[in-house]
Design goal:
420 residues; mainly alpha; three-stranded mixed β-sheet; two-stranded antiparallel ribbon
Length: 420
């Protein structure tokens, strides 16, 4: 990143916009298609100049993984990476197989995006721009807190009382400030309580971020209150489950409340994009990382040309016939840092799927499901993550939760197709 600089890009009216790693995705969200295309082409033209360096670095990364896995007598790099997390390698491969079995829904989503954007050809630079424009509402922090409390009331009075305590006793640093880090973050301190950093923008996204980060905070609170210090922390595999469960419950609550056609379409689009970005996209990354691991295990060198060829083919598989898989997208692997994180990225997709399953169980079964869910929240790392999720009622050793989550994706997609 320190060595890569991008030239400014122009929009449809000839105005220049700075292009950086940080501005790339916001530019791809623009309603100006000329700006999106120019940013896309310029970004990957520059990244292409570094493809051999990045490929060589990845090759070294996977050779290191291979050395340690063989030195420690593991059958492959995936099993070696997941062993300390106590997650079976089959969970990883089951995820990929389940998503492959539901690619028809992704193809429907792509076809819907093409229709709603009104374009003759849908390109990869059309993936991020919102499908539903013009539905914006200012949501201040007080309204966001009240709405989150309403949505999470299904988790019981003790849970919402904790939320209120957090809201009123300064667990949160809400607004952007000079020198403050961007994004949002929850620090799971047990003494005296967790702390949450936000950068609230009075938007729908910011309200979902509030629900998400308070999910982390209350997960930490429950674990720290029940577990001794050595098992109070929880592993990454379950870390995103409680936070995303809160988001799903919030989305369900908002969809139940709204009768406005445009607002409903806006909310469904938000949820569909979460599925696309968290389940499909992260699984595609996980599959590509597994491909690289298998190549290393077979003694192949990870060259830029081979990686581009394999990534391009995978992109075509995941996005289907209605997407023009532009040649530039073959270079997307150069901008994904997670490929250096040793089989980490799949946990976004499994966590999201588990959260959807848990939220549905809570809304369907009520108190008994909530009681099981709170046992999970209090579990810390007292047992392996698969067993913890089984306590909550979700078995991630099977592909069923992923299939169920993508079934919901299909239902919401069907409603969106009617609203379009």
């Amino acid at each position: 990143d320190a060595d890569i600089r991008f030239d400014p890009v122009t929009d449809g009216e000839g105005r220049e916009h700075p292009l950086t790693n940080g501005t790339f995705v916001p530019l791809e969200e623009s309603a100006d298609r000329t700006l999106r295309r120019n940013a896309f082409e310029s970004y990957y033209a520059r990244m292409g100049q570094f493809k051999n360096t990045i490929a060589a670095t990845l090759d070294a990364e996977f050779r290191q993984r291979l050395f340690f896995s063989r030195a420690r007598k593991y059958p492959d790099t995936l099993t070696a990476a997941l062993d300390h997390t106590e997650v079976p390698a089959e969970v990883y491969t089951n995820l990929i197989e389940a998503v492959h079995g539901n690619l028809d829904k992704m193809y429907r989503y792509v076809a819907l995006r093409k229709k709603m954007l009104g374009v003759d050809e849908l390109h990869m630079y059309d993936v991020y721009t919102p499908l539903v424009a013009g539905v914006t509402r200012k949501i201040g922090i007080d309204e966001a807190k009240a709405t989150v409390l309403e949505a999470l009331a299904v988790l019981g009075k003790d849970y919402t009382d904790l939320l209120r305590e957090g809201f009123s006793h300064r667990w949160l640093d809400v607004y952007e400030n000079e020198g403050k880090r961007g994004g949002a973050y929850s620090s799971g301190s047990s003494r005296p309580h967790p702390y949450v950093l936000l950068n609230h923008k009075d938007t729908l996204d910011s309200m979902f971020t509030l629900a998400h980060e308070m999910g982390h905070a209350l997960h930490s609170w429950h674990s720290c209150k029940v577990q001794p210090v050595n098992t109070a922390d929880y592993v990454i595999f379950v870390a995103e489950v409680a936070s995303t469960c809160n988001e799903v419950l919030l989305m369900r609550h908002l969809l139940k409340k709204t009768t406005d056609r445009a607002e409903r379409a806006y909310l469904i689009n938000h949820f569909l994009d979460s599925f696309k970005g968290t389940v499909y996209r992260q699984t595609m990354f996980a599959e590509f990382e597994l491909m690289m691991g298998r190549m290393a295990e077979q003694g192949e060198t990870l060259t830029a040309d081979v990686l581009c060829e394999k990534y391009h083919a995978l992109n075509r598989l995941y996005f289907g016939p209605d997407m023009v898989s532009d040649e530039e997208i073959a270079l997307e692997w150069t901008r994904i840092p997670h490929f250096f994180y040793n089989y980490y990225v799949f946990q976004y997709a499994t966590g999201f799927s588990a959260a959807v399953a848990l939220a549905d169980r809570i809304l369907t079964e009520g108190e008994s499901a909530v009681a099981d869910y709170k046992k999970f929240l209090s579990g810390g790392s007292s047992t392996d993550p698969i067993s913890l999720l089984k306590i909550a009622g979700v078995d991630m050793s099977t592909p069923d939760p992923v299939n169920a989550a993508l079934s919901l994706f299909g239902e919401l997609l069907g409603e969106m197709e009617k609203l379009a």
